[in-house]
Amino acid sequence: MIHRKPFHGPKRRLVLSMDLGTTFSGMSYAVLDPGKAPEIKTVNRYPGQEAGDAKIPTVVWYDSNGQVLAVGAEEPSEPPVEDPEWQDDAVDEWEDVPKVFKVEWFKLLLGPKGMHTDPAIPSIKLPPGKQDVLEVYADFYRYMYGHARTYIEQTHANGDLLWESFGEDIDFILSHPNGWEGAQQSAMRRAAIKAELVPDTLDGRERVKFVTEGEASFHCCISSGMISESVEIGKNVMIVDAGGGTVDISTYTFTKSTPIAIDEIAASGCIFQGSVLVSSRASAYLRQSLASSRFGSESHIQAITTEFDKTTKKRFKGTGDSWVKFGQPSDRDLEFGIRNGQKKLTVDEIASFFDPAIRDIMHEIEAQQRAAKNHVISTFFLVGGFAASEYLYTKLRGQLEAHGSQIFRPDSHTNKAVAEGAVSFHLDHYVSSRVARFVYGVECRKLFVSHDRDHRSRFATKEIAEDGTVRLPKGFSIILPKGTQVSETEEFERSFYQSSRTGLYWIESTILCYKGRRTPSWTDEEPGLFSALCTVSADVSQVPKIRLKGPSGRYFRQDYEIVLSFGLTELKARISWMENGVKKFGPASIVYDEN
């Protein structure tokens, strides 16, 4: 267990993390009292649960007007709408179906385009009255925040007074999959504002912070003492956070042991192969194999799948057939493997639901091992809700141990690693550098170089700049190469100049992200692999205007730099310029295209 130093802030604060998962969600927190060492606690009691639990289902129930009826483990009084019926695109008239709508797996709607796609996943449709998934996010955040308050008030001495003492001194740490980017962070912040966690002010927005699920899990492993034996300088560790929707894989090395300091040594990975995909493959198989049986109705398929989730999926070890209970003892259809209200699933059938996930996880592990280059990774930790699967653990252990590696699965903390680790991330801040997952840069007009064959082939596209030079459009100027290890304090500058007749007062520059394998020089050579990461905007009215004369007459030139910080969990930007030999800085805003 890590012993933290006393909090040295001027007044009491609360750090509250929210881990909104695909299937289950949880919260952890720490009260920061001046002069006292913070202690991370987990909310382990929610409405609708008979016994205490650190997780609740990520489910929201709505009425036909989009009003929340129940959240999490609670259920509404009216019967729910059958998913296939109300999610069917052919159903347009909401009045023709029951008045209660169950929304789950909505996290998948927020991910980067193309990331959460699988034929086994049914289409996820918003209920009536909701135009955007952020509204569902906001409803869930609002519920979690309200229950966090109730929990703290009920479990701490003088809890009411304690909560009132926080005021607006609450920092929210929101976790997200490794593969999510700035657009998703921006959307989550807007959802937090909509949920009234923070006001829509600069101070309010800055109180919402982000951490990847992989990094949060690693912080939990350290702060809880799970990997105390691995904390030595030069030790390399890979964290496999297997959750409901995604499996987040992160690789680190210890650079200091006292105090602990860690560097990421390979770009983090994120694959859409969480436990929900296992269930979806099982459901798809049952739907197909029982199509001609009287037990092939959607209600029977859902009943079998639900029981499969609760028992078989966790217990399956790959050593025998399983019987999944779903009905009455009188339910029989031997031709389809149904006896005494139970459906038989052979060992090979069940394995086929898991094996695509195991294959993809091992592929990502091997990719990160290659990316880590000279760092030999021999220690692995499997955490997350999906880590409870005996089959997943057994198969990964077998493949990793065959190469001389060890994999550990902590007995506790696995299902609350992200929530607790997110608070530790804020308090302990072990990771000091991260690795760029993609190539980042800007489109530019390149100065024509006559002896460059590539430039000569593009001469027909030339443009004449204000200063009379020949420029080639569609160039790509790299700011940050893929795989670069970036410290939190490191900044990357890209010099710009703007020419105009009167001088500019406001500039906008689009930061591009290249997700291919090459070192790109032009944006039109692989256009499908470029995407707009964000637009950086800034007031440049204070940037000196240099008056010049070109072939087309007089014009003004302004020189400045856009300064980007990639080493944090969230991209930051500002601008700089030289004035009378002194470097000056100004603020810049970042706007993401959330579509």
What does this structure look like?
By secondary structure, the chain is of the alpha+beta class. It has 3 domains: 13-211, 2-Layer Sandwich (Nucleotidyltransferase, domain 5), CATH 3.30.420; 227-409, ATPase, nucleotide binding domain (Nucleotidyltransferase, domain 5); 439-591, no CATH class. It is built from 12 helices and 30 strands. The strands form 6 sheets. The protein has a 7-stranded mixed beta sheet. Strands 1, 2, 3, 4, 8 and 9 form a 6-stranded mixed beta sheet that branches. It starts with 12 loop residues before the first strand and ends with a strand.
Gap from first CA to last CA: 42 Å
Proportion in helices:
25-40%
Largest sheet, spatial ordering of strands: 17-16-10-11-12-18-22
What do the pLDDT scores average to?
90
Number of beta-strand segments: 30
Globally, the shape reads globular
